[in-house]
Design goal:
Blueprint: H1 5-37, H2 47-85, H3 89-93, H4 96-114, H5 121-136, H6 140-143, H7 148-166, H8 169-178, H9 182-215, H10 218-222, H11 225-255, H12 259-286, H13 292-295, H14 305-312, H15 341-370, H16 381-393, H17 406-409, H18 413-436, H19 448-462, H20 470-477, H21 480-499, H22 502-524
Helix pairs in contact: 1-2, 1-5, 1-7, 1-8, 1-9, 1-12, 2-4, 2-8, 4-5, 7-9, 8-12, 9-11, 11-12, 11-21, 12-19, 12-21, 15-16, 15-22, 16-18, 18-19, 19-21, 21-22
């Protein structure tokens, strides 16, 4: 099968992100059953068995999803090896990653057959160990030649902590649906809080070990794509910790008789789940980047602090476009042409004008929020204008601007990601306008905007350019990470505006447009030289 390696790499990131998500769900569900639902069942009265049954069903579903995703990972890996190394299928199957991936699948199968109405503690624990072992041994940790044990321990702490904390949140929500008495809700919440606190400790220790081991120096951390992505992941984790602290306060308030605190806890937990998934996809992207310490071997590929500051120094945006005749056209429809000055100017024009659109949208949303500008409620229509501009200009080599057929250029992952972003922008503009003007009154329609915004933010985090100059690629991509983080935060602030209590909704209603304005400013300041 003739599939471009860059496209395979992009699909591998998405598949790895899905695997880490299902892995966390299965680890979190197993930990919740073994450390909370089963030991506390008798103290929860009739709700105890109901919690075990509900969580067991979802653990079964999560294990099935893990099996499917792990299988897809294996097939993608084999296809990647065949394409890049020109090996046969039989030769590719013998690769080490296949054996470790099959171990994860075996662990998923064990948890699948061990979950249900009854809890089988030993098989569930064995299944989790197998899943973790397979995942760790297909990560950077097993690829280290020196100090491999150190990195394996660090990764084990990190993945286990993330699974117990983030993967346990959906099961906390399920349990809270089954209990009606305040004392029982406080018991479930406080017990989970203790589990999550220990998990965060393990995650933090593992993260610190990997940060030191994989970066090696401050210069490597700030001058490489691995370090920049690690910084983006840290920003999202900091927000998650803030939500975790707020939930802990909600549990204490509920124990003192605050019924509204349990509603707030559930809504904050929903946002935690969404941001947590984004963190796991950021981790999947990290797995595709060479560790900073390895990149330091070739210092020419590492950006210096001076180069970063020079690139980020604000300048007047590019508001005029070069003629399309000056744009270089690739000879192969699946590849990008080598960039010229006109290509860079074309890209800067697109980004700068997109930034003006996004900042304008944020300002209109704030005006709408104030209630003093009735026409401002039509602000989502600006997304449609921006999507049209991106559709026409994002890839000048292909239809409708260039000679290469539209679908042929989708073989280039950078082009495909730009087209996906354009589609997402158009969809959430259309849906949000229909919701704001009462043309679409279905309850689910309100959630299209935050969910599609979260998808757009995740695409920015996984976005890559097909430049051969590693340093220049990093200097371009380093602006995408904060925009991706802000897009994800905007999505879940909007979610809380819709579903949160009055106080949270009011605050978040001002926060998400502010995120859009900052994204717009970053795009206006974007440049490639």
């Amino acid at each position: 099968m003739d599939v471009p390696p860059d496209l395979l790499a992009f699909l591998a990131v998405l598949c790895r992100g899905l695997f880490l998500t299902t892995e966390a769900f299965v680890i979190g569900g197993t930990g919740f059953l073994l450390a909370l639902a089963d030991p506390c069942s008798d103290r929860l009265g009739p709700a105890g068995p109901a919690i075990i049954e509900r969580c067991g069903r979802w653990l079964f579903a999560g294990s099935a999803a893990l099996l499917a995703v792990a299988g897809g990972n294996v097939l993608l890996g084999i296809l990647n090896v065949q394409t890049s190394l020109d090996l046969t299928f039989d030769q590719s199957v013998g690769a080490e990653f296949v054996s470790w991936s099959l171990l994860s699948m075996a662990g998923g199968l064990i948890t699948l057959v061990s979950s249900g109405r009854r809890i089988f503690r030993a098989p569930l624990a064995m299944g989790i160990l197998a899943i973790l072992a397979g995942s760790i041994m297909t990560s950077h940790a097993n690829a280290r030649i020196e100090e491999r044990t150190f990195f394996v321990i660090a990764d084990a702490l990190h993945q286990t902590g993330a699974g117990l904390w983030l993967g346990g949140i959906p099961f906390l929500l399920m349990a809270l649906l089954e209990v009606s008495e305040r004392a029982h809700r406080v018991l479930v919440g406080s017990r989970y809080s203790a589990i999550a606190t220990a998990a965060v400790g393990g995650l933090a220790v593992g993260a610190l070990m990997m940060s030191i081991g994989y970066t090696g120096s401050v210069a490597a951390a700030i001058g490489t794509a691995y370090g920049a992505m690690m910084g983006g992941k840290l920003m999202l984790l900091s927000v998650l910790l803030m939500f975790g602290l707020l939930n802990n306060l909600c549990i204490r308030a509920a124990g003192a008789g605050g019924d509204a605190s349990m509603l707030r806890l559930r809504r904050f937990a929903e946002a935690e789940i969404g941001i947590g998934i984004a963190v796991l996809f950021a981790a999947a992207t990290l797995a595709t980047q060479p560790p900073s310490i390895d990149q330091m071997i070739d210092r020419a590929t590492v950006a210096t602090w001076t180069e970063i500051v020079e690139r980020q120094t604000p300048r007047f945006p590019r508001l005029t476009s070069p003629p399309i005749e000056d744009i270089s056209i690739p000879t192969d429809s699946s590849l990008a042409a080598e960039g010229t000055a006109a290509d860079r100017e074309w890209s800067e024009f697109n980004h700068n004008w997109a930034g003006l659109f996004v900042a304008f949208i944020g300002l209109l949303a704030l005006a709408d929020r104030s209630g003093k500008v009735p026409l401002a409620r039509h602000w989502p229509l600006a997304f449609l204008l921006m999507a049209f501009m991106l559709f026409v200009r994002s890839d000048p080599e292909s239809w409708p601007s260039g000679p290469i057929p539209f679908f042929e250029r989708l073989r280039d992952p950078e082009v495909m990601q730009h087209r996906l972003v354009t589609l997402v922008v158009a969809l959430f503009g259309l849906f949000e306008w229909a919701v704001r003007t009462d043309r679409l009154k279905a309850g689910w329609a309100r959630y299209c905007f935050p969910l599609l915004c979260a998808v757009g933010g995740a695409l920015l985090l996984t976005h890559n350019h097909t430049l051969t100059d590693i340093k220049q690629r990093f200097l371009i991509e380093m602006t995408h990470i904060p925009m991706g983080v802000l897009g994800i935060l905007a999505a879940w602030f909007r979610w809380l505006e819709i579903r949160g209590d009055a106080k949270a909704a009011r605050l978040c209603g001002w926060l998400w447009p502010a995120c859009f304005i900052v994204i717009g400013v970053l795009l206006v300041l974007y440049r490639e030289a």
